[in-house]
Structures are given as structure tokens and as C-alpha cells.
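Standup notes
- HV: blocked on the assembly model, inputs below
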Amino acid sequence: MLGTMNLSVEDRLQGVDCRIEPGKITAICGPNGAGKSTLLEVLAGLLVPDGGEVVIGEQGLASMHPRERARRIGYLPQSAQIAWDVSVRSLVELGRMPHGDHLAEPVDRALAALDLAEFADRRAQSLSGGETARVLLARVLAGEPDWILADEPLAALDLGHQLSLISHLRAAADSGCGVVIVLHDLAHAMNFADRVLVLSEGRLVATEAPELALSEERLRKVWGVDARWLGEAGARALVTS
Amino acid sequence: MNRAALVFALLLLVAVPLSLMAGRVWIDPATTPNATLILAELRLPRALLAIVVGGGLGAAGAAMQGYLRNPLADPGLFGIAPGAALGAVVALWFGFTASAWLLPLFALIGAGGAMALLAAIAGRTGGIALFTLAGLMVASLAGALTALAISMAPNAFAMSQIVLWLNGALTDRSWREVWLAAPLVLVGIALLWRSGRSLDALTLGEPVTRSLGVDTRRLLWLLVLGIGLTVGAGVAVAGIIGFVGLIVPHLVRPLTDRRPSQLIIPSALAGALLVLVADSVVRVLPLVTELRLGIALSLLGAPFFLLLLLRMRKGLA
């Protein structure tokens, strides 16, 4: 279990209490400025909260050694800047840093899981946006973390690559990993998440199944948008009126 | 050892004996009178000093570019070289040249002062942007004080000594400078080498680096100490020798897999080679007075830098 107790960060998060289950995809949704990325950074241990704490299993994140934390939590930021034209394999190998080893097996496994085996020797700057997104997720998977925290991993991807990345995240969740993603696309959250956390002005207003968390009533209250869900469960589309 | 390190180590092995023979007088150990004495007391320490100074600057440049994720970064950005230069200028200004140890000692104190100032300004947060800006300010301040010292020099002799010294050279150096600089530079290179894996992680940005369990503040101090020792000791014994830290990583990078960690040792070897060759060339040039090494490397470095900017401009257009 990954959870927070009475979390606060300046004027960005206030009194956030949540419990996130392993083996599931949890989406964090909310309007711009609601505190989604801040919550993810606090969960990842990158931002120290002013109040409250993050708990992973029975242990407080603050008391954990950075390397131990890094072994448990894999973090995928929103921007995909790769400073040097290194090989795909050496990027994915960075995932092993918290373990202090250069084991080839988890790296090969991560490359294979994201259909990147034949890309291993390609240079980072020769990759397309979709390929880069897969490489960066492979870097996280190579560290074999218990938790994957991803900040808008679908932004800047076309629909095909979005669906492909979601299926890879689902596979990670099915293998027991807890997946937490910040999502702007509410239809993706509705169709692919197991649970949705809704943030509004730094406060947590829902932690529920997507159908409840993203109800039309809540879209009106939190996003200020009159919108309707069409279609069947698992294949919903959002239309605004 | 990676391929690039091997290439530059072999080239260095070839360059050292050539450099020992090269000079205003070409030495043939079999026929030149007093050849052993000239080699042991003049040419060998000078060659070793070139290797030490160049090695330190090359490694510092590679680490700095890795840290700032910028191929145009130079170790001078931390303000340590200008700080060291200011220390040496103070020694020359006051005429503290009675003991040959005093000038390098003052330069090391200057380098230490620049590092302390950096710590005071930006040490707590450890952010890359704040640190770079603080480094630039330290460099500006040291540069301004150096200019002040020159303009208010007590006499023409001190002024000419300061200006000459600032241009960097390995002329008339002895084993004393080698013993002073070599240990410091070696420890500095070792510290920079240790930071290599963390620099690799920085390829993906600071948040990812921290998420991988790297203490980025510790990394920063490792680099400041490593660059302080390599560059500070280099300036202390040779004066300002610019552009080596900028050029060398560019020459080395295409021979490596481009990971910052794989660049540090080959850049140290390539920096050593560049300074050794440049110092040999300035010795054999048929000029009335020997061309200062710092000037020669700037004459080489500035056009190289412009070429780099042109290539980047094409890439960005």
C-alpha cells in the first residue's frame, strides 16, 4: 500500500489522505493547478511535504534511504529530455542504478516487454516520440520497482502510442506493480484506470472507481464543464454540450 | 578501459618522447652535451606538468559538460579558475615571489576562496541554475578584482609580470611545481571519475536523477571539489590556460558511447595530450620570444568554439 496522511505542501496541497493499492492503475485527475504533479512528486519522495507523511507499506518515506526508496519507486517525469545521444540500452540500464548493479537480465526483460529488443543499440536522438516514451518506461521497468509513478505519460503521444503505452502499464499492474499516473485525458482515466483520485484546488475530493469519481456531476463541480459520458463501461467517450 | 582512453593513452606514449626532444634545441640523447641534465631537470618536469595540467582541465571540462548537460560548458563557469588567478595576482602585486611556493599557494587559496563563496551563495539549495549563476558572478568578481590589481599595479615590473603570468605558460617550471600540482590534480580527477555514474543519470534530468537515489547535493560538492582541485592546481602552476576544458570533450565524445561517465578519463588523457603537444609546438616555433601557451591555446580554441556554434546554429535552423 502507498498512502498519504494529512499531506500539505505550501498552498498547493492541503490535508490529502489517500490509499493506493498495488496491482492496480490509479489515475490522478483534476484541473490545471489542482496539485496533481505536486502530489506525484511528494509520493515519489522528490518533494518534501510541509506537513503529513507518505507511507509505503509500513514505513514512512521520509525515513527511507534514497536508494531504498529508488528501488521501491520508479518515477517517470512529464518531460522527455535526453541530454546526450546515448544508446537505448545505456538509458534503460540507468534503471539499475538504485540496485548498484549492471544486471543484463532485467534490462533485457524491460526492453523485450516494451518491444524494444531490436532498438537496444539505436541512438536516443534517432527515436520518434512514441519510441522515446517506450524507452523511458523501459528504464523504469528495468529497476523492477514495486510502484511506477508517471506524470502525464500520454502527453505528446498520438492515439496509437497512447493505447500502446497504456497496455504496457496495464501489463505492469497485472504483474503486481502499483501504477499511479497523472492524466489529463478524462476518457482515458475513465476507460483504463481502476481507481481515480480527483484533486481540486489542492484538496482530494474523490478516491473512487472511475464511474463514480468522474461522474457528470463532479465534472461540473470540479472542472466547471457540462459534459456527458456516452458508450458502454470500458469504452466511454466524453462529449461537451 | 574504453576505446577512447586506449587511443589517447597510446598517442600520449608517442608524444612524450617527442616532446622531450623538441625545443629551441633538438636533443639527441647520444650526441647533445648535457642531454641527461637538460632532460631530467628541464624537459621532463615541463612535459609532466603539461600532462598534469592538461589532464586536470580535460577531466574537469568533461565533468562540467556532463553536469550542466551542455556541450558548451567550461570548467571556468564555476569561477574557480578566475579565483585562483586572482590569488596568484595578489601574490605578484605584493611582490611575494621570494619563495617559489608562495605564488601557487596564493593561487590555491584563491581557488578555495571561490569555492567558499559558491558555498555561501548557493550551497544550501544545490540547484544547477543557481549554482551556475553564482559561479558566473564569482568569476566576474574575480575578473574585476584582477583588472583592478593590474590597473593599480605598484610598478611597471609587477604589471608586466601579472599580465605575462595571466597568459599561462609552462616556461621555466621545475619538479617543485610537478610535486605541488600532481597529487592535487590526481585526487581531483579521481573525485570527478567517481561522479561519473551520477552524471550519466543526469542525462535524463535532475528529477529522474534524484528519483534514482542520487544525492544531487553530494554530487555537486564532489564536482566542486574535483574541479577546484584540478583547475585550481592547474592555474596555480601554469596560469590561465583556457579552452582545453571546452575543446577536449568534443574531440573525445565521438569516440565514446557519449555517456558522461565514459568521457572523463579519456578527456583527461586527451587534455594531457593537447597541452603537451601545444607546449612542444610553442617551444619549436621560430619566434624571438616563446609564444605563451595560454595564448596559443586560445588562438586554437576560439575558432574551434565559433565552429561549434556554427554547427549548432545549423542544427537549430
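- HV (later): unblocked. Chain A touches chain B through 32 residues (CB under 8 Å). The first strand of chain A starts at residue 2 and ends at 9.
- Next: hand off to the docking folks.
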